[in-house]
Amino acid sequence: MNLCIMENCIKPVKAKKYCAMHHQRWRRHGDPNTIKVRKSDPPAVCQWVRCEKPTLCKGYCAKHYYIQRMMKS
Predict the structure, then answer these.
(1) Do 46 and 31 share a structural domain?
(2) Domain shared by 27 and 49, yes or no
(3) Is 58 left (phi over 0), alpha (psi -120 to 50) or beta?
(4) Which domain holds residue 73?
(5) Which of 45, 5, 49 is nearest to 23 (CA)?
(6) Claim to verify: residue 15 and residue 46 sit in the same structural domain
(7) Under DSSP, is residue 54 helix (H, G, I), strand (E, B) or coil?
(8) 31 and 56 inside one domain
(9) pTM, whole model, 2 decimals?
(10) How far apart are CA 62 and CA 24, in angstroms?
(11) Alpha carbon 1 to chain centroid distance?
(12) So which domain of life are we looking at (predicted)?
């Protein structure tokens, strides 16, 4: 079994002599040493009137999303 060519990495090779993690970094950034944290959007607030809970799906919190689904059925 071949190991990743990166220093101190003992994971098995996936492709191009890199393990899965280093290969993915190489594909995304062109360098297997580059580490970039993906930024997520700030949590949105429910669209329902006077509701300040964070959204779950389609702009509504869990409670109001359920109500919306039932109203459309």
Answers:
(1) no
(2) no
(3) left
(4) 40-73
(5) 5
(6) no
(7) strand
(8) no
(9) 0.53
(10) 35
(11) 30
(12) Bacteria
Amino acid at 7: E
| Alpha carbon separation from 55 to 23, 40, 48, 68, 70 (Å, rounded) | 35, 14, 10, 13, 17
Domain count, the chain: 2
d(CA 38, CA 36): 6
> What stretches of the chain adopt beta strand conformation (E)?
none
Alpha-carbon gap, residue 65 to 28, rounded angstroms? 35
Name residue 35's amino acid: I
Q: What is the pLDDT along the chain (73 residues), one digit of tens a residue?
A: 899 999 999 999 999 999 999 999 999 999 999 998 888 888 899 999 999 999 999 999 999 999 999 988 7
DSSP 67: H
* CB atoms inside a 10 Å sphere around CB 18: 20
